[in-house]
Amino acid sequence: MKTILITGAAGDVGTHLRRELAGQYRIRASDLRPLKKVAQETYVRADISKMSDALKITKGMDAVVHLGGYSVEGPWEGILSANIIGCYHVFEAARRNGVKRILFPTSNHAVGFYRRDQTIDHRVYIKPDSRYGVSKVFGEALGSLYADKYGMEVFCMRIGNVNPAPIDKRRLSLWFSPRDLAQMVAIGIDHPDIRFEIVYGISANKRAWYDNSNAYRLGYRPQDDSEVYADEILAREKPGDPVAEKFQGGLFCVAEEIPNPAPIPGAARPTSPTKAKARARARSRPRRGRRDR
Ligand code: 15L
To answer: Phi and psi at residue 123, in whole multiples of 5°?
Structure first.
């Protein structure tokens, strides 16, 4: 049985994945946050913004599934530390520890500025829709470098939205059921012939915006299709922001910040540069009535 590391294991995707893969692999689950253990896995608390922690958790692994990091658009400081520095640490630590295979869950937001009337495949030019999307492009680029330069095997999944069921119209195109996620991850871990691949992490959705032929070529056979939820979802959906509606990335194309679905309990929230500037402007503005006094 292979031993795998899952970083960011306490998050939503990590929690679904660990449940689905329990018994198939020996799992080392790591996160900054505490987590509820699934049978037979081990938990290691780690902060991947520290190289020493990344070296500790990647040691002795057959493969790394690097889910850790900021999972939505957010303040640059958070993205930089978790998704750029942290991602580099995980790849570099894996290389130093001789771990050949890395699965990098990138995101639909690496290509979120493609329009919804376009169908894109794994070869299109990147079009990130957010700082978060840029950080995912960074991870893909790092994967390409480590594959070409160091012979590592890197499997990048541009994940749509992992949920037990699709949650809105946009997610009808992007839905990724937990069991399809587990199937794709197993391909990434076990396929004998991976060098550097990009696939789309979605189920067999009729409304998909992707030509996912690269995943199918590697044996992916998704079992779920969001279409069974379509009538119910479309009946309750109200028209949204016109820019968000036009592009695949949706609200990420317009938002400066999206509430973090997996904050670290008790941690101070970093202030976004936009909010910090607005506060500074407000402080320097003369108070109403002051000049008359
Ligand atoms: C993502 O990349 C996020 O990690 C996830 O939280 C969702 O927001 C998803 O994209 C999405 O586009 O729905």
So the answer is: -100, -5
- Cα 27 to averaged position of ligand 1 atoms, centre (Å): 24
Tokens for 178, please give them: 């937990």
* Helix axis angle, 131-150 to 86-96, nearest 10°: 20
What's the start-to-end Cα distance of the chain, in Å?
A: 78
User: Which segments of the chain are extended strands (E)?
Assistant: 3-7, 26-31, 42-45, 63-66, 101-107, 153-159, 161-162, 175-176, 196-201
Pocket test for ligand 1, best of 72, 131, 176 (most atoms within 8 A of CB): 72
Number of residues that this document lists for the chain: 293
Instruction: Tell me the C-alpha to C-alpha distance, in Å, between residue 242 and each of 140, 146, 251, 285.
Output: 29, 39, 10, 34
Q: What pLDDT, on a 0 to 100 scale, did the predictor assign at position 275?
A: 53
Say yes or no: CB of residue 161 within 6 Å of ligand 1: yes
Tell me the pLDDT tens digit for each residue of 251-264: 999 999 888 777 76
> Choosing from 132, 146, 200, 220, which is the catalytic residue?
132
pLDDT grade, residue 37 (50/70/90)?
confident
Burial class of 261 by CB neighbour count within 10 A (0 to 12, 13 to 18, 19+): exposed
Sorting pLDDT into bands at 50, 70 and 90, what band is 278? low
- Placement of tokens 């689905």 in the chain: 20
